[in-house]
Amino acid sequence: MRVSRLNLLGLCIALSGGAFASEPLPIAQHGGVSQVMLTCTGCHGEALMGVAAAGFPRLAGLSADYLSKQLYDFKAGKRFNPYMQQFAAGLSDQDIQSVTRFFAALPTTQYARPSRASAAEDLGARLALRGAWERNIPECVSCHGPGGVGVGNTFPPLAGQPALYLVNQLRDWQKGVRRNDPNDLMGHIAKALNEEEIQAVSDYFAGLPVGGAR
Ligand code: HEC
Ligand code: HEC
Prior knowledge:
Elements: H1 2-16, H2 19-22, H3 26-29, H4 35-44, H5 64-75, H6 82-89, H7 93-105, H8 121-130, H9 141-144, H10 163-175, H11 185-192, H12 195-206
Bound molecules: heme C (2 copies).
């Protein structure tokens, strides 16, 4: 059942063309959304911008390839999260394609972010911008891009993601329950970080603006 509803969503997206680029919210409000989309917005926020307090990540504006890889990774058990494993399992290939394209096209720039927390800034900024090469920790921005805005389809944005979400991911890699990254890149990095560093670097990126303006 879910499948056909989401296919309908895909059709709506196709028919509406670029309209979503300027008006992402009305789909949720005009009642035309499938139950599946309502399910996603229930946790990821009405504009798919995440919910900081709960640690639910932003999906709006992330690469469709990255997002679909994550959904397949949840399906395959390479990422652990009871909710997402269940939701991902209910999506067909076509659903995944439609929904991730839709998320990727949502605009994000108009959303302001709180300014950076200064307490974590020194340690967090140092790791983010310079790394700790004596422990083989490269600077995060070398892969995640200047300002942590993300690069291409492989390196997701960290800027403006909830700190709690980033912390959870780094801990999951430490524990080995997220093991979906090419060549264990993030696994190695996460295992080299201590708890204080994980918190600091997560706070640092959470405080950066999504659109990359610095
Ligand atoms: C009950 C809450 C909940 C609902 C509903 C939900 N999600 Fe999630 N989602 C989460 C949480 C929590 C995470 C972070 C999981 C983790 O820590 O690994 C997540 C992560 C994700 C990610 C990975 C993002 C990234 O940056 O790697 C994708 C993609 C995703 N969800 C897609 C969806 C889609 C599509 C739907 C609707 C079909 C959906 N979610 C519905 C809670 C939810
Ligand atoms: C050598 C390249 C590289 C470096 C350096 C790097 N990352 Fe990553 N990171 C990746 C890749 C690739 C992924 C996506 C993995 C996947 O496909 O799920 C990722 C994903 C993440 C995620 C999950 C984001 C999400 O949306 O789920 C977090 C959090 C993260 N990295 C934090 C960091 C931090 C903090 C640093 C610096 C201490 C860092 N990364 C340095 C390559 C890198």
